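> Could you send the Vesicular-fusion protein sec17 prediction when you get a chance?

Sure thing. Input:
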Amino acid sequence: MSEREAQELVAKADKKATSSSWFFNSTSKYEEASDLYNQAGNIYKMAKRWKESGDTFCKAADMQLKMNEKDEAANIFINASKSYKKSSPEDAINSLRMAITILTERGRFQSAAKHEEDIAAIYETELVDLEKAMQAYDTAADWYAGESSTALSHKCMLKVGTFAAQLGQYDKAIDRFETVANASLDNQLMKWSLKEYFLKAGLCHIATGDSVSAHNAVGRYCDMDVTFSSTRECQFLQSVLSAVDNGDINQFTASVVDFDQLTKLDNWKTKILLEIKNSIGKESSLI
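Output:
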């Protein structure tokens, strides 16, 4: 099958969609046009003409909307997004938004959350727009929570916390990390992750520059989980806090190196720690 065949199918579908005849009802012509657009979209897809494929699938979805076949329209918009994603992330997002609008109107929030998460992933990896990725993950988290999909909601919340901290929105990051930690206390499968959530939230507390609040937070984490005080993560937070309180860069550096030797620091923690280190430098330079 050739692209020329796809073009011919699109032309035929266009003509069918705009035709007017007393012996053809509108539902019939829109259904036939949608089928033709779908055929053309698949041919373009096989030819790796991703933009044309997505555009043509969207036309098929529009025909379904004219027939008030909203579920089918949503499915086709999602199909369009898969083609668009290969060449035009913005168009992929737009077609997913069309599907999500339909899904939420019909109360299908679990599906809507999944595709909102897809949008977040496009912003995260393709467009590298952390603010918009964070907003989309936040929406997905809310919708998953509303459908009692707790694990999926928490997964999205942790993404929000991660991006919020990278953007300097530490209060939002703290809220998300602490929310997931609190919900994990009585969950045997998730409890092993508590020290990681507390560590991330604690570093964000320190990064805000509010030492009193940071000390209180670490104490609260120890109260929430009696095993936390004996972990390397807790001892590291206390050591970093001590260095910040003393304005001691050398103590801070030694604490980081010591922790990193046994528990390798990832890029995210390294970035937050660099922010904290820079704040120590500013404070000590004023003395």
